[in-house]
Amino acid sequence: MNPFQGTYELIEKYSIKEDGTKIHPWGQDVKGMIIYTDTHVSAQLGVRERANLSTFNFRDANAEESQEAFTTYIAYFGTYEVKNGYVIHDVQQSLFPNWIGHKVKRYYRFERDMLYLEAKEITKTTGLDKTVLVWRRLS
After folding, report:
1. Which CATH architecture has domain 6-137?
2. Which residues contact 118 (CB under 8 A, 6 or more apart)?
3. How many Cβ atoms sit within 10 Å of the Cβ of residue 135?
4. Which helix (H) or strand (E) holds 67?
5. How far apart are CA 40 and CA 128, in angstroms?
6. Which of these, 92, 95, 43, 41, lies nearest to 69 by C-alpha position?
7. In Å, what is the CA distance from 92 to each residue of 44, 78, 87?
8. How many CA atoms lie within 13 A of 54 on its CB side?
């Protein structure tokens, strides 16, 4: 059986600075879900409490509202493969357009019902050593 297949809820998202300090750029109250089928992945995650826009039509939001909404949430889907200790998400569509058509590589480990995904390549330009996503299996 494929060990990834299932649905997971986000428990924690944190980053480790180059000096070893643990920080929570989105705060400690995050919400998210990642779903793995036998070949596909879909992920959505963000800050749990997000401000509403001043309008129901997101296209009419002002620049400040749009910036806040965009920087507190990420969503994408695609296919995935497991290779050499990494799970590699081949992104087909994303809220962050730069990921579309790219392979997002995550070191992974399972501990009981928890899945840890560690991102290094997206944090190198931020002064962070790595970002860790902690997911709990729901099914």
Report:
1. Beta Barrel (2.40)
2. 106, 107, 108, 130, 131, 132, 133
3. 25
4. helix 63-71
5. 29
6. 95
7. 14, 5, 16
8. 7
How many CB atoms neighbour CB 3 within 10 A?
Answer: 11
Listed by start position, the domains of the chain span 6-137
Q: What is the pLDDT of residues 62-116, one digit of tens each?
A: 999 999 999 999 999 999 999 999 999 999 999 999 999 999 999 999 999 999 9
Burial pattern 57-80, b for ≥16 Cβ within 10 A else e, equals eeeebeeebeeebeebbbebebeb
The model carries a pTM of 0.91
Each residue's pLDDT tens digit, 26-63: 999 999 999 999 999 999 999 999 989 899 998 999 99
Q: Which residues of 20-30 are buried (b: 16+ CB within 10 A; e: fewer)?
A: eeeeeebeeeb
